[in-house]
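Much of what follows relies on a compact textual record of a protein's fold. The record below shows the convention in full:
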Amino acid sequence: MVAIGARTEVAGLALAGVTVLVAERPEEAVAAWEALPEGTALVLVGRAAARELGPARLDVTGPLTAVLP
C-alpha cells in the first residue's frame, strides 16, 4: 500500500506500514505516481494530488486508488 499526498495528509500512515510518497507540489504527485513500486495494489491519494493526477491516471485497471477525505 502506498500513499501520495501532502505531508500533513499522509505522514501518519507510515505508522501503519504504508509507504509514503510526499507530494507537496503538483509535479511531485505525477513523479510519485510514475515511481510507484512494482506490484502496488492500493494507492491512497491526497485531494490535491488526486486533482493533479486526474481520472486518466486514477481510473485505470490497476492499482486500486482511493482519495483521502
Notes: Strands lie at 2-5, 19-22, 42-45, 64-67. The domain at 2-67 is CATH 3.40.50 (Rossmann fold).
